């Protein structure tokens, strides 16, 4: 393919899957990484061009965006999003990048209590003023949450009350991102909430996991104080913890609820159910 696509965050969940999808379909992919390791080697072995750099370093971004037609931008829940977004937008404009797919989040809005979610909202507004065409991706909770927060006890201890969402796997998000990057024009200026196929509360998620794993999984509602203690025990940063505590309240208030047909409409196939995701990751659950 003549199009060159830059994937920022290429060793993360959505970035890696996006890069692999594009490479499989024959696209010229440049993967921005901060260091060379086994994850970057995997992409290199698949045919990606590896570019060393950092989104907080404008000069390295300017090099990485040279001769690029479109790029995917994602940034972790960590300080620095605004600087990273501004650097990326500047580098993209300087080098004539035609389109940006920006990973945001469904709770991004001006009035949120989450510092990270508010920064995502401001980052969206900044990119909306860019001369480069932008598409914003706003996923609900990743299905990977059910792995990241799994402690092996068989209990899902969260302060979500009976709030609901439709978990969406990173691989399904990556399919959407890759399709937009291949042909950005129809998606320019759009903001896409992304959901899995079935909206569930955590009692129903636990039931789905129980059926798939053939073991008892229970949802145990807890308070914010206990949740904060759990997050601290996992070594999460204050920035991330502040975000997740605010997200828990948003979740209870229905901000993460809903579902739609966006994945199928753009990609031609339905996203994974909780059962399918858990079955695909059965080895993890059996080992933990």
Q: What does this protein structure show overall?
A:
45% of the residues lie in helices and 16% in strands. The longest helix is centred in the C-terminal third of the chain and has 15 residues, at 238-252. The model has no long low-confidence stretch (mean pLDDT 97). The protein contains 13 helices and 11 strands. The strands form 3 sheets. A 7-stranded parallel sheet has the order 3-2-1-4-5-6-9, with helices on both faces. The chain has a two-stranded parallel sheet with strand order 7-11. It is an alpha/beta fold and 288 residues long. The protein has a domain at 4-140 and 168-194 and 257-271: Rossmann fold (3-Layer(aba) Sandwich), CATH 3.40.50.720. The chain is globular, with a radius of gyration of 19 Å.
Short description:
The chain has 288 residues and is α/β, with parallel strands linked by helices. Helix content is 45%, strand content 16%. The protein contains 13 helices and eleven strands.
